[in-house]
Structures are given as C-alpha cells and as structure tokens.
Amino acid sequence: MTMRIARRDLLMGSLGLGARLAASDVAMAQPRGAEGARLRDVRYRQARATNMFKAPEMYPNALAVMTDPPGGLWIAQQKLKGIQAEHYHVPEQAGPDQVFLVDWTGKVLKTLSSASEVTSGIAYGDGCVWVVANNEADYPPPVTGVFQVDMNNKTLSVRQIPLGGGGSHGAKWHDGKLWILASRLNAIIRVDPKTWIADFAIPVVRDNDLLSGVHDFAFDDEGFIWIVMLNRSGGYAQSVHSLSKYDPKGAKLLEVASMPAGTGYAHGLAYHDGAFYGCDAGHPDHDSTNAGWIFRIDLI
C-alpha cells in the first residue's frame, strides 16, 4: 500500500528527532550541560506500583481502556514466535495472540484473537480493537502492522504502520485518531484510521541511561501523553521504569516519574479514572517478580 505524507516536514526539523536528555546516573537527576539546558524545565518525581490481579494468560504486553458498555480493560497477549523465540531460546508458542476484555477485578468478559505476531500494542476505538504487531505476521501478505478486529472477532483490515512500517511498542485511540508508537521511527505517530495517513509525530527522548528503552503509552484526562520508559540495567532488581510526560501539541518532554528499582516492570500502559495501569509481560529476558500482573501506577 502506498502512503501519502500530509506534511513534508513531519518527522524532522522542528520536532528534533535526535533530541537528547542527559542525566548523571540511573537515579532521577536534572540533566547537565548544553543538552540539559534545553530541557532544564523537565520535572522529575516518583511513582509507585500496586499489584491488582493476574492477567488471564501469561505474557500480557499491552493495555487499552474500553468505556463503551460493558466497559473494562483490554489486555493483549504476546506469544513468542519466530525471531523472538529464537532470541530467548524457547519453543514457539502455538496459536494466535489473544486479547481479553476484563472488568476492574480481573474477571474475563470477552476474548478475541488476531493474526498479529508478538503483539505489543492495542487500542480500542470505533467499536473495534486495533491490535499492533511487533513481528512480521504470517498473514497473506506477511505484515508487521495493525489488525482491526470487531467485537465478533472478524478482521476488518490489516495495514502496515505508515511511514516505513516496522514494529510497534504501543497504540492508543484518541479523539478519533489512532496513535502508534512506531519503533523504526522512534516516534509516536498520529494516523487517520480511514485514510491511513499519518499527519503528526512526537519523537521519543531515549538517549540516556534512565530513558533507554520504550514500551506502551497512554493519554491522561488533559490530553498529555505518558510513555513507559526503562533504564539500562542488568536485570529486574536494577530495572527502573518511568513515565515520561509529553505535550502532544509541542512534542515536548515535560516530566519524568520513576518507580523504585525492581518494581512496576510495565510493558502495557492505560489510563482510567485518574490513575495509570500497567502490565508485566514476564518474558524470559528478565526475572521480574511481577510477571503476569496488572498493576496500578500512582504518581507521588
């Protein structure tokens, strides 16, 4: 599928795709030097995670809130297949990736599936779930992209992520648009779900030890974007997960809220009724004690 770009300067130039955030170490600290001066207004604070319930199946890797009746939380499962299974030296997990709608106590209300491979993002909007793959799915034709699935488990569309395809680590529906964290671009892009044209992008600041990796994201009540970031670490005990707050209009990093080392290993992120919610996929690459849990994240 050929994609058109709405604005020629979509990703470069004023958005500063290569912007850097310097920090003295993994602990929260104001960045220094010329790079730090450009971001000296960034606020640093703490957050805490509280376990709520286990996901219906292992490897919960993405979250989305459903406000339509009956309401609840969509949990997307990520099975390890292909290069992912090879990387972690485990057998491929048979069957399709599933998505579960649960209530806020963890009771399963609905189960759907898709042809997505290594699912790393899910959004709910327009009466559908939008399941996002982080691997090329064995779908005719093979695709690393977005699977639109209705509530009857019918696949309505399968499309590559705009502006170069590639994998994804998150997606959300907001104000009638689909927002996708496009890994190849290192940016969150806004996509019209009907025309499939991307017209805006927010580059992710991830150039230091504290903000090294990236997972899912969510919108709060005021329309700010919060992205799950992780530090460089040798294991779960040293892992620090943070929520980076961005102004979606100016594509500017405003705030970083970090959880204590060894807690809140968030892969998926959602926001509901004044609080954030995360899920821990529990893959073999770390020794997380929160594997499979859905937890609440509160800013302190």
Give a brief description.
With 300 residues, the chain is mainly beta.
Instruction: Give me the Rg, rounded.
Output: 18 Å
Q: How many discrete structural domains?
A: 2
Query: What is the 3D form?
Result: globular
CATH class of the largest domain: Mainly Beta
**Mind telling me the CATH superfamily name of the largest domain?**
TolB, C-terminal domain
Uncertain residue ranges = 1-38
CATH architectural arrangement of the largest domain:
6 Propeller
Helix content estimate: under 10%
Strand order of the largest sheet: 14-15-16-17-1-20-19-18
CATH topology of the largest domain: Neuraminidase
The SS-based structural class is mainly beta
Largest sheet: 8 strands, mixed
Provide mean pLDDT, rounded: 83
Q: What's the total count of β strands?
A: 20
Q: Counting H and I runs of at least 4 residues, what is the number of helices? A: 2
